[in-house]
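Fill in residues.
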């Protein structure tokens, strides 16, 4: 094992003078509010008020070579998930044990089985994906040679891939513009060339409109399915605003699952009608966690949407393809061949980014995986079939969690080797935080966005479309900005 310093150099010298720091922080807070880098407060919710979203004052360093590698790999990951989503035999077999013990997964699969039995009304799916990754400092072999040269990391590993409600299409680019302003105010304008272009918002919206065009129903709208209470309002509304400004002939409507079950119905050709509006494309920003379904009505709404000819983002099969259990299964070489074929370079490129992923099913070596976790829990993370952050179990908490589960209950979880990223240094600015903020140690998670449209047999559209960076205190496990643990950031590319 190599022993890198595990620290990435900051893009500007720290610490900043206190007076200068306080001045630029106040400017940054105002910039964030006035440009929509903001959220509604969960603690003191008011639909008429916004707080700036937590942010890192200056961009965090990220190796250019690894960033470019992630960008170039995304279309291949799009194709992989697309192929997985359209293999019903694989999905149902892979999730069979999880289906028995996880109520939420079981409800999703019930919808999937229903539309499979009836015949899927819309063969096209729209995937707006985000592959999340972290740099790794534990290195060996040729990976370690790179680490010795850079002296901070060896490579990057995938944390997960998101297939539903892949957020930060607006907040990701906003971070770059906010930090560009701050770098300029600090006298480092010449460094802006190292902040990569980020067209995540336009890329996500353009893909939605591309799906809308394929439907050839000019009077139909794009339907955003949203939570009953939306905290991350800017990240959603800016998608809507971009579509309305760039494509004024394309209508956008927002409805909750509760409203859809009250107002929704299928037309004679299985058109999705919500009130007096037809929706030809459905973009889910809700529906990814049990709390979005208050009863049978919301599940009925989800089934109604799936039965329609609207193009869904995600379709039910795409949603299932994003579950942790499926991603754990994909880490097996023979499984990758099923979807990629015998293309050795493609298989190697994908396998290279996977960290250790282990099934906890007894029939799949689950007892051995449990033994690994109990022997050295700090090396692992327990992950359930949930999105939205705050659900994972880390380190010292793993033994008690595992010992409290029956062997059947373990099937709702996977075990993943923990990634140990390099540290960076910066100022985290939070609403009601200390003024001036202290200099702290941080770790970052990069998300690469992809868009893909196609059927089981043909891909019509496949692009990498932007990125986002979330950064958290190095002492924190969870990193979700919406969940309150992380902060907006953007990558500063270094060689």
């Amino acid at each position: 094992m190599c022993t890198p310093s595990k620290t990435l150099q900051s893009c500007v010298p720290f610490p900043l003078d206190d007076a200068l720091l306080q001045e630029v922080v106040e400017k940054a807070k105002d910039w964030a509010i006035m440009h929509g880098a903001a959220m509604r407060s969960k603690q003191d919710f008011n639909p008429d008020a916004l707080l700036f979203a937590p942010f890192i004052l200056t961009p965090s360093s990220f190796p250019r070579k690894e960033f470019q590698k992630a960008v170039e790999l995304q279309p291949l990951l799009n194709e992989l998930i697309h192929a997985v989503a359209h293999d019903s035999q694989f999905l149902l077999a892979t999730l069979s044990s999880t289906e028995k013990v996880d109520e939420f997964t079981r409800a999703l699969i019930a919808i999937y089985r229903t539309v499979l039995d009836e015949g899927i009304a819309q063969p096209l799916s729209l995937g707006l994906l985000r592959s999340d990754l972290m740099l790794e400092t534990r290195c060996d072999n040729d990976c370690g040679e790179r680490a010795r040269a850079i002296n901070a990391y060896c490579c990057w590993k995938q944390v997960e891939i998101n297939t539903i409600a892949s957020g930060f299409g607006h907040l990701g680019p906003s971070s770059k513009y906010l930090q560009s302003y701050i770098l300029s105010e600090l006298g480092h304008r010449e460094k802006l060339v190292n902040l990569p272009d980020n067209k995540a918002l336009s890329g996500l919206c353009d893909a939605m409109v591309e799906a809308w065009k394929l439907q050839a129903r000019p009077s139909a709208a794009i339907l955003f399915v949203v939570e009953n209470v939306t905290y991350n309002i800017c990240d959603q509304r800016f998608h809507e605003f971009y579509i309305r400004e760039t494509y004024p002939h394309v209508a956008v409507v927002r409805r909750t699952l509760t409203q859809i079950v009250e107002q929704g119905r299928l037309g004679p050709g299985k058109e999705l009608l919500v009130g007096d509006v037809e929706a030809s494309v459905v973009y889910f920003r809700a529906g990814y966690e049990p709390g979005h379904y208050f009863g049978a009505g919301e599940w009925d709404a989800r089934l109604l949407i799936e039965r329609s000819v609207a193009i869904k983002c995600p379709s039910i099969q795409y949603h299932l393809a994003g579950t942790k259990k499926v991603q754990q299964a994909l880490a097996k070489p023979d499984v990758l061949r099923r979807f990629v074929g015998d293309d050795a370079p493609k298989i190697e490129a994908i396998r290279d980014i996977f960290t250790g992923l282990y099934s906890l099913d007894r029939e799949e070596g689950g007892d051995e995986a449990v033994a690994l976790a109990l022997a050295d829990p700090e090396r692992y993370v327990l992950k359930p079939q949930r999105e939205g952050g705050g659900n994972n179990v880390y380190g010292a908490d793993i033994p008690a969690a595992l010992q409290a589960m029956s062997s059947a209950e373990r099937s709702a979880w996977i075990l993943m080797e923990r990634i140990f990223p390099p540290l960076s240094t910066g100022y985290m600015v939070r609403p009601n935080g200390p003024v001036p903020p202290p200099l702290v140690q941080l770790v970052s998670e990069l998300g690469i966005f992809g868009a893909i449209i196609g059927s089981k047999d043909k891909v019509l559209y496949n692009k990498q479309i932007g990125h986002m960076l979330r950064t958290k205190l190095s002492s924190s496990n969870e990193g979700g900005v919406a969940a309150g643990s992380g902060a907006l950031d953007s990558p500063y590319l270094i060689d």
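The first helix runs from residue 18 to 34.
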